[in-house]
Amino acid sequence: MSQAIVNTVRQFLEEYIRVEKFENDENIFAKKYVNSLFAMQLILFIEKSFGIKVENEDLDIDNFSSVNAITDFVSSKSTV
Amino acid sequence: MKNKQLLESLSAYSKEVLIPQAGEYDACQAVPQSVVAELAKMGVFGANVDTEYGGQALNAFEIGKVSELLGYASGSLLSLFTVHSMMTFALQRWGSDWQKDRWLTPLAAGNLIGAFAVSEPEVGSDVNGLLTEFTLEDDCIVVNGSKQWISFAQTADVFFVAGKLNGAPATLVVERDTPGLEITPISNMYGFRAGMLGKLTFNHCKVPKAHMLGQNPLILAQIVGSVLDHGRFTIAWGALGLSNACVDASIHYTKTRYQFGEPLYQHQLIQQMLTNMLVATRSSRLMCMDAASARDESDADMIIKTAAAKYCSAENALKTANDAAQIHGANGLSDQFPVERYLRDAKVFGIIEGSVQMLQMMIASQGNQWISH
């Protein structure tokens, strides 16, 4: 797992998540740290920051549920 | 170059036909088919569609300018462009190849007109509370329920419909001639009177499964959210157009109307109103440009910036139209002057595609990341 991706994702999430501390494996949707509006912003951020295209078939909540999940998703798309 | 041509053609057509005739459309509560055909010929209905589907592929600033030109002429024409482009946006971003072939290309050419059907008699902003039901039946989806306040329902060929499938939000496309779909015109609205609104009633209306867009909750959140976001953007620019129209009408009126031996514009309290109108209109423009810039950059903040632009522009349109009517005195309440229509239409901007209050909630909860910088 790339630490650079983790750092970039965390930096973005910290701007939106209003809790003092959250772990990389915490489910940000299940814990209601974010809402569906944020999901749109997150996908725009991922596409722009990592230069990848999020396709319809990628839009599974499991790909975006935590810092670790997002990092895994970005890594897998980057190697395609 | 092609884009510049579209904007120039639309600007000229607006001055020659749309602005002079908009009052008639309002009085008759209809947009003539000849106008729709002319807008189609210019490429307006494919403004936000990629060239591979026959569209114009305009950038956000250019889409904003189209919206501003239409909003200047008529709120109803703006709503035609808005609901149609919401549908083309959804199909282009989320549609299957089959859906694009069937609907997107003819929509971009203006051979089909699209409409957006989310609101229901009992449901407005709360998409999770939709009562329209989609039920799977073999290779079809059966639609039951009703939709209310659907702009251009009276003439649209295809409808982008939101409902619930197995309790979760879902969207699909319904063609006008589908058995079980009944369309009832709605007349005598307060504003956007030429918006040709209608109520859709789906009574065991069966469409092929291939008409569905999105198959899981995250895609659906993206579809509905991004389509509304697109609509907010065009409405924001359209409201800016209406503010501009109010300013132009008021400047013209205050230069030609004399009271106490001097033109109205020399009276200081009139100058105060003109100043407020000019500054409000300029602030709307800057907010719209900020949103357009974020959209062209695919910036994550584009959604909240668009919401803020729509909020600002809608509020300013209402204030500006109110001042314009006040400046015109009794003339401002007469259908012999366009400001009476501007005031009625301005009220609509604060309600459609996210009410002022819904947008305030969005901005308060998510806006500090960029507003504070």
Quickly list its features.
heterodimer; A: 80 residues; mainly alpha; Non-ribosomal Peptide Synthetase Peptidyl Carrier Protein, Chain A; 3 helices; globular; B: 373 residues; alpha+beta; Butyryl-Coa Dehydrogenase, subunit A, domain 1; Butyryl-CoA Dehydrogenase, subunit A, domain 2; Butyryl-CoA Dehydrogenase, subunit A, domain 3; eight-stranded mixed β-sheet; two-stranded antiparallel ribbon; 10 strands; 55% helix; 16% strand
Notes on the structure:
The complex is a heterodimer of chains A (80) and B (373). By secondary structure, chain A is an all-alpha fold. Chain A has one domain (3-78): ACP-like (Non-ribosomal Peptide Synthetase Peptidyl Carrier Protein, Chain A), CATH 1.10.1200. In chain A, 51% of the residues lie in helices and 0% in strands. Chain B has 373 residues and is α+β, with helices and mostly antiparallel strands. Chain B folds into three domains: 2-113, Butyryl-Coa Dehydrogenase, subunit A, domain 1; 116-215, Butyryl-CoA Dehydrogenase, subunit A, domain 2; 218-371, Up-down Bundle (Butyryl-CoA Dehydrogenase, subunit A, domain 3), CATH 1.20.140.10. Helices cover 55% and strands 16% of the residues of chain B. Chain B has helices at residues 2-28, 33-42, 60-73, 75-94, 97-109, 217-256, 268-296, 302-328, 339-349, 356-366, 368-371; strands at 114-117, 133-137, 140-150, 158-165, 168-175, 181-185, 198-208, 212-213, 258-259, 262-263. In chain B, the strands form two sheets. In chain B, strands 1, 2, 3, 4, 5, 6, 7 and 8 form an eight-stranded mixed β-sheet that branches. In chain B, helix 3 (60-73) runs antiparallel to helix 4, helix 8 (302-328) runs antiparallel to helix 9 and helix 8 (302-328) crosses helix 10. The radius of gyration of chain B is 21 Å and the shape is globular. Chain A binds chain B through residues 12, 15-16, 36-45, 47-48, 56, 59-61, 64, and chain B through 94, 214, 216-219, 221-222, 225-226, 229, 297-304, 362, 366, 369.
